[in-house]
Amino acid sequence: MRNLAVLVALLFISPVFAGCFGEEKAPTQEPDGPFIFEEGDVSSTTWYHYPGTVSSPFAIDATNSEAVSAANITANLSGNSTPYFSTGTYYGTGYDTFEPTLGVTSSGAIFFTNYNGLGDGTHIIRSQDQGQTWEDVGPFGAIDDDSGQTPNSNDPYLYVDKFTDRLIKFDMHVLAAMFVEYSDNDGESWSVPFTVEGYYQPQDHQSIASMPAPPGVTAFHEVIYVYCINTGSSANGAQCSRSLDGGHTWDVQQIGYPIESYPQCSGLHGHVAGGSDGSVYRGNPSCEGPAVYRSLDGGYSWTEHTITTEVGMQQGWHSHEVAVAVDEEGAVHATWISTDEMPWYAYSRDQGAT
Question: What is the DSSP-derived secondary structure letter of residue 320?
Answer without folding.
Answer: T
